[in-house]
Amino acid sequence: MTKNKTPSLSFEIFPPKTQIGNQKMLQILNDLQQLSPDFISVTCSNTKGSFESTTIKLADYIQNQLNIPTVTHLPAAYLTKIEVATILDHLNQLNIKNILALRGDILPEEPAKDDFKYASDLIDFIQAKQPDFKISGACYPEIHPDSANRITDIQNLKQKVDAGCNELITQLFFDNELFYDFQEKCQLANINVPILAGIMPIINRNQALRLIKTSEAKLPRKFLAILEKYEHDPIALRDAGIAYAIDQIVDLVTQDSAGIHLYTMNHAETANQIVAATASLFHKQKMIS
Ligand code: FAD
């Protein structure tokens, strides 16, 4: 396993859906910039045209106005090779050379296109078209839901890394032991790229309820107790949710994780509080007032 002396700290944001959201996003990004992230990644929905209409515009602002490296998420199951080639050219023109190459979810009501059956097909394609791009891939400490079992999931992940993935970012998880177990299995399978741990602070009731209803992630007793006890106390729930994320991060960094990727849910203040509590672990100066 590759070990960084200094773990990376990065943030994920998603493109807002409204004009007001877009205006707020500029402030969010300016706030996140103060926290000196190693990169900011921008998600992309797998609906047609989404990348060009939202993701790439935000990524351009982050990379070229804020001068923060950006990683663009690119789910390709519903795209053709011609469409992806156009996207890659556009990214190259904007000097954005980092992609999180994704298959994306397959919608039950809409069959996927044939060009990119798996993320590894997209990685092969990017490598051929833009060999100097840095490619990240997604991984799942608790197994991808489409996989029959852990063994095939890890074998497929190995294939993805061998296709040319420079780094992996995990799905969110709340139990660090599952992550350590996954890391060990990757090591045994000779998957040696850095694995960034995806951490999502839970800061409000809606988020908590959605998580309980839909999440594939195991919710430890300690975590469920927080959600239950502070369900009707928004401030306590927020404080406890942030403290839980900080506790996970301290443990992960102490145990030499390659990096932390914070699912910010576009809440700069939450990221701010977490960085304020952990900045020295990432050898970052505290710039928080
Ligand atoms: P793949 O790596 O292709 O894997 C999908 C499934 O196929 C797995 O079960 C895998 O084991 C299996 N598989 C892979 N290769 C093979 C093979 N050669 N033969 C047989 N089986 C194979 N979704 C979005 O729509 N937008 C986003 O912005 C987004 N960002 C994400 C960020 C992160 C960090 C993560 C972890 C997920 C993100 N997702 C996003 C969700 C992701 O698109 C879904 O989980 C999707 O279902 C799988 O995408 P993948 O790239 O991991 O697929």
Automatic annotation (TrEMBL):
What does it catalyze?
(6S)-5-methyl-5,6,7,8-tetrahydrofolate + NAD(+) = (6R)-5,10-methylene-5,6,7,8-tetrahydrofolate + NADH + H(+)
What are its E.C. numbers?
Answer: 1.5.1.54
The coenzyme or cofactor needed here is: FAD
Keywords associated with the record = Amino-acid biosynthesis, FAD, Flavoprotein, Methionine biosynthesis, Oxidoreductase
InterPro entries annotated for this entry?
A: Mehydrof_redctse-like, MTHF_reductase_bac
- Under the GO molecular function aspect, what terms does this record hold? methylenetetrahydrofolate reductase [NAD(P)H] activity
Which pathway does this polypeptide act in?
Amino-acid biosynthesis; L-methionine biosynthesis via de novo pathway; One-carbon metabolism; tetrahydrofolate interconversion
Which top EC class is named for this enzyme in its record? Answer: oxidoreductase
User: Which sequence ranges form a coiled-coil region, renumbered to this chain?
Assistant: none
**Xref: Pfam families:** MTHFR (PF02219)
Keyword Flavoprotein in record: yes
Q: Return the similarity comment.
A: Belongs to the methylenetetrahydrofolate reductase family.
Record NCBIfam families: fadh2
Protein name listed in UniProt: Methylenetetrahydrofolate reductase
Specify the taxonomic lineage. Answer: Bacteria, Bacillati, Bacillota, Bacilli, Lactobacillales
Q: Which gene encodes it?
A: metF
